[in-house]
Amino acid sequence: MNTIAGTRGHRVDHGRPQAGQAPSQAEALDDAEIRARRMALRSSVIGTALEWYDFFLYGTAAAIVFNVLFFTKLDPMMGTLAAFGSYALGFVVRPLGGFVFGHLGDKIGRKNVLVVTLLMMGLSTTLIGVLPTYGSIGIAAPILLTLLRLVQGFAAGAEFGGAVTMSAEYAPAGKRGYYASWPGVGVALGVVLSAGAFALVRMMPEADFMSYGWRIPFLLSAIGLAVGIYIRLFVQESPTFEKMKARNAVAKAPVKAVWQEQKRSLLIAIGARFSENTAGYIFQVWALSYLTTQLKVPASVGLTAVLIAAGIGALLNPFWGALSDRVGRRPVYILGILVMILGALPFFWMLETRETPMIIGAFILLIVFGLYPMFSVQAAFFAELFPPRMRMSGICTARELSSVITGGMAPVIATGLLAYYGGSYYPIVAYIVFMGAVALVALLLAPETRGIVYEEDE
């Protein structure tokens, strides 16, 4: 039996079959099941990429555009702080979205929830693209912008958790780390697409960009929405959820069950996210603002650096997942935490050079070798911490509660520290190191989940 209290899982040996043994489950799958698995993975990657393109797009625009066009009456530093404040509000409602959609995902199925969240995200992002600015409608502009951000946050509360749950439950024995890492590829692609879209429109003359060019990436979300909905409608429900329905084992109150039966796993998952989520939004979002407003580096340099680093991260994400199938989830996760802790100060040293190759190298160091080892392995790690009947609720609850404390507040905290300490980055380094230390403690207290299989997953 495993070491997580209150579960009905067990460890299994996923070694190669010996001579004379029956074929593995993966080898016995018929063509229809293989096609269903591939469709589920494609759906997770493409749908997650489109949805997180929308979500990260707001963060990029907050660093470059919204502080000027929607918070016009404030000085540059306060305008940036206000823009990131509206950005952070999207994280405030994410736990609510996680509770609601996580509950529905464990009650009525993973697929339907993923369709609804993608629809909400795509529509709200497209509407931002046609939103009048402060100069046209005054105070109503930042209010409407913030309301649309709240819709984005509510939808994001279950998107990644649902995609991870679906991918993990379609994974063959012994390959959950690899399969569950693919939604992370979608997130990385979302970062690449959002940074790439802004990098392209930033090539326009400044007046044209500030007038209408910044809207183009948001309006393109309508095309992505149509593609994503089409793909997700053809995905079959998770086989694990279908088994739970057949056995009448669907939880009546999955969110409540997480709090009552899996509190230790929930706290471990929340703590583990402190480092990963802080890294994601400091190095992929806030650092763009730091480069442009503090170091006076052209915005295109930061966007290019994020584009390259996230692209490499996307390519390596399945590698980290597959590595965790061999050596365990905890070693790979801890590697990412240590890179983040030890690399925080060198990151700023490299940015301070204002040299493009050094800036790109800084982002590659922290995003590729710090963020993505944590992010990739987290998918299977969290899926194995929680049993299937409350899995989506557990993953979404842990992710979104931690998002309020870490990801959503990270740009706001970093901007506030920079302002309070007169532009010094040392307090921000201390903040990053502290968040990494919290995650490191959580991982050291966590069980090794590789090899844990629950009845419904078999």
From TrEMBL:
Where in the cell does this protein reside?
A: Cell membrane
Query: Residue ranges of region Disordered?
Result: 1-24
Record's keyword annotation contains Metal-binding: no
Tell me where in this chain the Major facilitator superfamily (MFS) profile domain is found: 40-450
Entry's SUPFAM superfamilies? MFS general substrate transporter
Origin superkingdom: Bacteria
Q: Please name the InterPro entries in this protein's record.
A: MFS, MFS_dom, MFS_trans_sf
Main localization of the protein? membrane
Membrane topology per the record?
A: Multi-pass membrane protein
Q: Which GO terms describe its cellular component?
A: plasma membrane
Q: Does the keyword Mitochondrion apply?
A: no
**Gene Ontology terms, MF aspect:** transmembrane transporter activity
Keywords of the record, alphabetical order, are: Cell membrane, Membrane, Transmembrane, Transmembrane helix, Transport
Indicate the transmembrane segments per the record: 52-71, 77-101, 113-131, 179-200, 212-235, 266-287, 299-320, 332-351, 357-383, 404-422, 428-446
Q: Which PANTHER family match?
A: MAJOR FACILITATOR SUPERFAMILY TRANSPORTER (PTHR43045:SF7), SHIKIMATE TRANSPORTER (PTHR43045)
Please identify the protein, giving its name as recorded: MFS transporter
Per the UniProt entry, what species is this protein from, by scientific name?
Answer: Herbaspirillum robiniae
Q: Upper taxonomic classification of the species?
A: Bacteria, Pseudomonadati, Pseudomonadota, Betaproteobacteria, Burkholderiales
